[in-house]
Design brief:
about 350 residues; alpha/beta; 7-stranded mixed beta sheet; 12 helices
Length: about 350
């Protein structure tokens, strides 16, 4: 029985796929416009990803985009979902509706639309239906890419688990079944070269969250994990500062006499905002910095514990006193199956109890 797509599937996998497809097609990014969840009309219908070529006569270099024309519709199925016969007709209908959802007749020519289906599992029932009922011909053009012939709309089906790791590393890795440590290492090595790119961070974070056990034993995982965590902390810091500044400013202004002129009010607002911003920034920054340092220490100790190093050796390598590391070391040593975040929660709780 076909597994129904849940809301969590949509929010969990689709944003990562939207980032991933931009990574895959980055060679042609200057010629492509990407739209996520393109709405069709006023009804609750939406295309997963719509890609529009700016220069229609310029071919796309990437293997998954070789069939692209002007308007390219993509349907993505999350790893635990399957591509069904009804999915085919639904998206085909979307393509027809997209063609007609325009202010001027035939302003989107049907011959300028393509459809791409992306799934992890090979859709045997759908392929059989297309061949036997629709009388289409299915041709494998290269690893994981199957072109459908017999319709005036170019159609392709991409099976991510069959894609070439060399050509389509990130799209192939967008799964919750990443079992090989070598794949994880290759991903992280490539990520290091693009660590400042938010698209890569978004996809890697999703892959790590979906495959925690695979990444757990990979060397240097802690450093990359800390980079992603740091980005979240920076965002949290800014949000906390903004909220506290807004709250403090609002409370003060409510107490200002109505008779005060606008000029004075503006002056007070500016002064309070600057003062509160400085105070809150210092407080929250201290909290975030302490958390980051503790998580980094936990990550280092965790890797050293996996190499069966005793506390005395770890303390010597980290150039600190064994007594200072003892509490964290014991937590890591006794909870070998937990993640860095879970170990942090245990360590932070122990610190709070000690200070109470």
């Amino acid at each position: 029985m076909e597994q129904k797509k849940t809301e969590s599937d949509v929010t969990y996998w689709h944003p990562a796929f939207y980032a991933d497809i931009q990574i895959e097609l980055q060679e042609d990014a200057d010629n492509l416009e990407f739209e996520s969840e393109h709405q069709l009309g006023t009804n609750p219908m939406e295309i997963d990803v719509l890609i529009i070529k700016k220069e229609n006569d310029r071919p796309v270099k990437k293997n998954i985009g070789k069939i692209f024309r002007k308007y390219n519709i993509m349907e993505y199925k999350s790893p635990d979902d399957s591509l069904s016969v009804d999915d085919f007709y639904k998206v085909y209908g979307y393509a027809c509706f997209y063609k007609t959802d325009v202010p001027h007749t035939d302003s989107i020519p049907i011959q300028e639309i393509t459809i791409t289906f992306i799934a992890e599992k090979y859709p045997r029932k759908l392929i059989r239906h297309l061949q036997q009922v629709k009388k289409y011909t299915i041709q494998k053009t290269e690893a994981g890419i199957y072109q459908v012939f017999g319709d005036f709309i170019p159609i392709q089906i991409i099976i991510t688990k069959k894609l070439s790791r060399k050509k389509n590393l990130w799209l192939k890795s967008l799964t919750n079944k990443l079992c090989e440590h070598e794949n994880a290492k290759t991903l992280m090595a490539d990520y290091i070269h693009h660590s400042q790119n938010k698209l890569y961070r978004s996809v890697l974070e999703t892959i790590i969250r979906a495959n925690p056990q695979t990444f757990k034993e990979v060397n240097d995982m802690g450093d990359i994990f800390m980079e992603i965590v740091q980005e979240k902390f920076d965002k949290k810091l800014k949000e906390a500062v903004d909220q506290e500044v807004e709250k403090a400013t609002k409370n003060l202004l409510e107490n200002v006499q109505k008779s005060i002129t606008d000029q004075v009010t503006d002056s007070v607002t500016k002064e309070v905002t600057e003062s509160v911003t400085k105070e809150v920034t210092e407080s929250v920054t201290k909290e975030v910095t302490e958390k980051t340092k503790l998580m980094e220490r936990i990550s280092l100790i965790q890797k050293k514990c996996k190499k069966r190093k005793p506390l005395s050796i770890i303390a010597d390598e980290l150039e600190t006193d064994p007594d200072e590391l003892c509490m964290v070391y014991n937590i890591v040593f006794e909870n070998t199956e937990k993640s860095v975040e879970e170990l942090y929660e245990l360590a932070a709780g122990a610190v709070s109890l000690r200070q109470a």
